[in-house]
Amino acid sequence: MLHYWFVSLSLRIPTSAWLTTTHMDQIKQILIGSKLRPTPNRIAVLEVFLKEHKSLSHGRLQCMLQYEIDRVSLYRALIDLVNAGLLSRLIDSDGVAQFHYCKMQGNNHDTLTPHFKCKNCEEIAALPDLPKTYMQHISAFGHIQNSRLLLEGICLECAKSGSPVKW
Ligand SMILES: [Zn+2]
User: Fold this and answer.
1) A Pfam family matched by this chain, by name (predicted)?
2) CATH of range 1-105; options 3.20.20.80, 1.10.510.10, 1.10.10.10, 3.40.50.2300
């Protein structure tokens, strides 16, 4: 009898609610997998990055969140995600810190993955790694501590659609 009740109750839940719960669980698992407690702020921030595939500044991210997070708490959530290797932080040519989700986790100093950012749609993509021999070669100049490389331009999609170029 009790079992029957559970079945009939679950059937009334709309499909979208199930999907949302699954999506939320995946975000929580990503955070737990990176040894971060899945706090509401971290979940909300990571959710935007997983949905958008774009580089986002602190200010832009604040406008895109489902609910309001104060500046300091948002900054703290971003830094936690960067330190855990889930987000990457790059400074663009305007001197603004841009954050994006990185699929490759951890700080691997043996390889260098440059990124390309479209100045128009702000989409960011990982470019092929530079060869290991390059990293070995430049190690002769000193110990590399920051190996973030950002190339900027206009993506092919934006170039094709003839979107106005922002420089
Ligand atoms: Zn573009």
Assistant:
1) FUR
2) 1.10.10.10
